[in-house]
Amino acid sequence: MVDLRAYAMLRAASGAFACKCISLPQTWTPTTRPHAALILPSGEGVDRLYLTTPKGGDDELSLECFDLNELPDGSLVEVRYDAVKYVYYRRDGYAWLKVGEAHMPFLLEVFSMGRVQEIIDLDLDD
Hints:
Blueprint: H1 4-12, E1 18-19, E2 27-28, E3 35-41, E4 46-50, E5 52-56, E6 61-65, E7 76-80, E8 86-92, E9 95-104, E10 107-110
Antiparallel strand pairs: 1-9, 2-6, 3-4, 3-7, 5-6, 7-8, 8-9, 9-10
């Protein structure tokens, strides 16, 4: 869902609100495939480093997550709850800023709160 241009906008967004911890999905199912992933820019796009791992028995799998407090300032995390609901957070000191979300395919809402008009250079060929 996120490409380099969306990554640049999410990194520049001022955010909707700050929270101390991120709400993460607790159970894993093969139909919804929830996860938390660190979004990293690469040469031709973005890569995801998955921070959650399904654990448990045959009936129900719980999601085990890496300690998000260990991530450095400025880290961008994608939380997928189901096939269409994604939420994006950016680490800002000791808090997480909710910088974007998507509730339908191909539409990403970026939270900039309208405080400052930002011009983002999306010419990534340079």
